[in-house]
């Protein structure tokens, strides 16, 4: 049944529940006259706004996750808040299509003015293994998950006797040397120092934190001297900093750098990999407006050129920033700029509706601060530089003042005060997070996983090719576009037995192990299919053991010696009626099909496939066999030895092989029964 769309009419629609969207809504509400009938709606994926600068302290158990989020309805009283995902923006008709949830039909929103304040999205697909194994620091759920994971690593390491495994569990790698990366690494160091005494089998020599940064110094938006100060302080506390390095690939137990260095670790945190939101890219395409690296170029008043009803602010907008000597740059994607852009946009939009002058965005930034842990920070404010305890005190004071809501300020202040006198909360609260389908991009030569590593996903090759090899480098199977792999590990002990390497640029779709398990429990036929395909992934030693059960005389025979000849073939121009008669008189499961003109092999027709086609087409026998898509069976040459034939059957999951000559004409069919019959 087709879903009917409910319709809403708004004067102003704001998309995005971050700093820009929320502060725009607050500014509009503040300036609307009492009794105004202007309808303003804010659409956001969540019903709260996250104060992201404090997320690292949530990850280190210094702050409660509830205290760094604010309900948007509390912050913007009087605003119509819709928790929904935006599915489509109709520029021509000035309409939005939103969906409140999986159980509700889409809702159509008509608007007069649109404020586009969507943030950026995370894109880790360019680094193999990163989407599957990396932890993020984008929202409060990510911080909670990282906190639970770090504590779980300590609990596990406390019981592990193997020193190498314990070190791997307690080695943490943070990718990205910006504010989020530096603060996260510093907070993990603080967490260890605060809780280590409770774990008798965990020592300082087992614990390591790496920070991988692609540039020459940390905190690139600050001065080089402050970046060096932060580096020296963190290194003095034990942080291992790798500058001018990038992560090439990631597995469940290894972080592989472009230099070739491998860090043995089970926990990697990525604070890089942002990309434009897909809706932003679609809006740019639909409007034809200028963009900068996926950000919508606006005027200094945050209007989108050519559209007097379209406004943009925050991470999705490239807002001009006037510098000295009339130089022009664009505002950075930081909270302090998004907050002030949103506030000014609200004022400008209200002025525009009243036919009053609008003002350009002139804010140039007050400065930058970064806490590096252990009551230490670095800051650059109004051209002055600070470091150490005084900078840390400034960091806490300024961000506490910026935190929206008096109740949240008090809660955070209480958390910080209690943290001075009481130990950190080491309760391991581990909420379940569902991993849905995830897309992974691999370059040629990238390794997806190695033997012995835990298996977390079932993979489908969307594009490209993946070679599965054993420990000797022998090819087990080459998996191409449309094929899948990973089922054997997930069906057994969830350990990879082989190595998976991209032989060419490839894109994979990964299904998490829990979803894979649910799929198998829901479908017996799916389980049977995957159990059969899992048999294809046998090591060379397993195949050799199978071949040793056959006499040498059989193994030295060729496919031409053992195959069944004089097979009934169907021409590809035969009528369906004639094929039906053939199937009634010849009792085979597969029938080779050849080209009527050249005699070359075209494929095989399965009996069930033919009858399924008749059922789908009202049992009509009109037309020819060309209307049916043929199946493919593995094909070999008659000279191939029986042992190699058995190996081919195993690798392809087929008990039949088509034997062709050099001109691709059928010579016969070799079945597993033909090989077994040769023993007698």
Write a short abstract of this structure.
The protein is built from 22 helices and 42 strands. With 680 residues, it is α/β, with parallel strands linked by helices. The strands form 12 sheets. Strands 1, 2, 5, 6, 7, 8, 21 and 22 form an 8-stranded mixed sheet that branches. A 5-stranded parallel sheet has the order 10-17-11-12-13.
Can you characterise this structure?
By secondary structure, the protein is an alpha/beta fold. The protein folds into four domains: 155 residues, FAD/NAD(P)-binding domain (3-Layer(bba) Sandwich); 199 residues, FAD/NAD(P)-binding domain (3-Layer(bba) Sandwich), CATH 3.50.50; 100 residues, Jelly Rolls, CATH 2.60.120; 130 residues, CBS-domain. Helices cover 32% and strands 27% of the residues. The protein has 22 helices and 42 strands. Strands 1, 2, 5, 6, 7, 8, 21 and 22 form an eight-stranded mixed sheet that branches. The chain has a five-stranded parallel sheet with strand order 10-17-11-12-13. A four-stranded antiparallel sheet has the order 29-36-31-34. A hairpin with a 2-residue loop joins strand 21 and strand 22. Helix 1 packs parallel to helix 10, helix 5 runs antiparallel to helix 6 and helix 14 packs across helix 15. It is globular. The mean pLDDT is 89.
Shape call: globular
Name the CATH class of the largest domain: Alpha Beta
Total discrete domains? 4
What is the radius of gyration?
32 Å
Percent helix: 25-40%
The N- and C-terminal alpha carbons lie at a distance of 62 Å
Show unreliable segments.
none
The CATH architecture of the largest domain = 3-Layer(bba) Sandwich
For the sheet with most strands, the description reads: 8 strands, mixed
Helix count equals 22
CATH topology of the largest domain: FAD/NAD(P)-binding domain
Q: Tally of extended strands?
A: 42
Strand content: 25-35%
What structural class do the secondary elements suggest?
alpha/beta
Mean pLDDT score: 89
